[in-house]
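<amino_acid_chain>
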Amino acid sequence: MKRKIMAVLLGCSLVVASLAGCGGSKDEAAATDTKTEASGTKEEGASNDFKVAFVCSEAGQNDTGYNKSACDTLKEVAGELGVEYKIVEPTNGVAQALETLAADGYNLIFSLEYDFEALINGVGGNMAIAEQYPDTEFVVFNDNPNVNEDGSTKYDNVISVLFDVHEASYLAGYAYVLMNENQAALFGSDYAMTPIETSRAAGFAGGTNSNGILVYSYGFIEGIEKAAEELDVTYDYYAKYDTGFSDSATGSTLAGTFFENGANIVFADCGMVGDGITSKAKETKKLAIQVDANLDDTQPGYVLTSVLKITGVPVETITRAYADGTIKDMDNLQSYNLESGATGITDMSVLRDHVEDQALFDELVQKVNDVAEQIKSGEIVVTNAQNGETLDTAAVTHVNIK
């Protein structure tokens, strides 16, 4: 079996800026943005005899960053390498988009859509797309569906990309406690934080009870634990793992309940349900945490930070690996950690503009960055539910999980 080396790639700093957009209009099961000749400078010795395609998730390439990061990066890298690319917003199903692209000769196909059945197992009695096109490299995100029952790799031409968001979630939890403990100096009349003398608490809203959600929650808990232990305080932790992903009203109601229980923040890992959470945070003058893209300015001053998935990092790394012929040396499961630059939290600069004591705020952000360096070095190891790890509740002595 090929690809024995697990990649940890492209080191960069924790703090991440907002991502630029890419335009286009939707077309039935076809490209929304097609590039057939290079616009950038071709790298010396680079191969340009392949075609690369990108299938957007439902949010489309004009989202707030999750698709945009990958779209912009693909355009830039394709221009440098002198390769043809196509960006697709599928309107007739992911399976058709993948099969059409493969049949049209696209050699490397990325898909951000959370739909792997046709690719890996086949649907409607059809052979799996990965099996139909063994010379095409497929890249999927946020899950590792390409495994047999014994754990072995099913198809050599499918790469699964995971983001180690448990590490970034840890930082979000650590940051929250620091900010909450200094609320009197930081948050003025635009806020109505529950005083720490009355309650110390945090909330978490997850769309479904799965490892893909728990990976955020466990990291968040452990980050809260670290800061709470340092300050010798205890936090209550309220969580709900079945909010779904589509009803913002559900998020508003749940956040209201958590805030009434004394939480000054709710971590929203629940799609559009999170929109209701951030709206409720603004309404009640408290805080929220968002995920995937930089959503700090969706409710400016009421989003502490966003836990990021910078999809452009694996898109660039894997595209360049295909171009230079090293993709066969890559492992079929690619994990991108804090060190890689593909995950992290925002610099919290949007919130900074709204706090009273910006010098203190900067000191606290630096403490968060120091913890990030400890994670990168391996000094701090965060529980990773994506790998099947479970939270050691016995080690969590400063967080009461409700």
Notes: The two ends are 45 Å apart (CA to CA). The domain at 165-309+343-401 is CATH 3.40.50.2300 (Rossmann fold).
